[in-house]
Write a structure and sequence with these properties.
Among the domains are: 82 residues, no CATH class; 61 residues, Nucleotide Exchange Factor Grpe, Chain A, domain 2 (Roll), CATH 2.30.22. By secondary structure, it is an alpha+beta fold. The relative contact order is 0.06. A hairpin with a 6-residue loop joins β1 and β2. Helix content is 46%, strand content 18%.
């Protein structure tokens, strides 16, 4: 029978041909619905040695040069970070230096504080007033010796010109002579300096010339 008439003669034969066609269509749809897993590429083989040849690497795009704005921004961030670290380090070193200075000063005064503590706990009935006075005077001299070694000075001079940098005027009194105008007539409370740093101003009475 000619090929063109195979599905054209006989009703049963045509039905079989339709069934075969439908089965082929469903098989094609199932194959498209569930594709096969991706297979890794087969490496190329060297025709001379038969060994696998690596595929050439993909070209790398050249890195773009940073703009001038980016360069200045990066430099600014670096300088800011360095300054912040320097500031923190300076604060820490200053605090450590101050703590060491305080510790050294207290260590110098330790002996005088021990003497003062012994005098404070003496039975008054077991010592006379002169001995107690001499002992306290000795402790004071010892304390001032260590303070002077540390750079502390007392501001308690009378008769000197009034200096608002180191004096605090409590009140005024009339001066007896013109030369005493604007001078310290009396020190009510002494002041203290540690080298060039004023610890406490001296509270004083200032003389003023009223004139006659």
């Amino acid at each position: 029978m000619p090929a063109g008439n195979r599905c054209g003669t006989g009703g049963a034969f045509q039905t079989n041909c339709l069934r075969v066609s439908c089965c082929q269509t469903e098989s094609s749809l199932m194959t498209n619905k569930h594709p096969r897993p991706h297979q890794p590429p087969v490496p190329s083989l060297d025709p001379d040695t038969g060994e696998a040849v690596e595929a050439p690497a993909a070209p790398v795009a050249p890195a773009t040069e940073p703009s001038e704005l980016d360069v200045w921004k990066d430099r600014h961030l670096r300088l800011a970070a360095e300054y912040d670290n320097f500031r923190k380090r300076t604060i820490k070193e200053r605090a450590e230096t101050w703590a060491r200075a305080q510790a050294e000063l207290v260590a110098r005064l330790a002996d005088a504080l021990d003497d003062l503590s012994r005098f404070a706990h003496i039975d008054p009935a077991a010592i006379d007033a002169k001995t107690l006075h001499d002992g306290v005077d000795l402790v004071e001299r010892k304390v001032w010796k260590e303070l002077e070694n540390a750079g502390v000075t007392r501001i308690d001079q009378a008769g000197v010109p009034f200096d608002p940098q180191v004096h605090e005027a409590v009140t005024t009194q009339p001066a007896e002579k013109p030369e005493q105008d604007h001078t310290v007539g009396q020190v009510v409370q002494p002041g203290y300096k540690m080298r060039e740093t004023l610890l406490r101003p001296a509270r004083v009475v200032v003389l003023t010339w009223q004139g006659t």
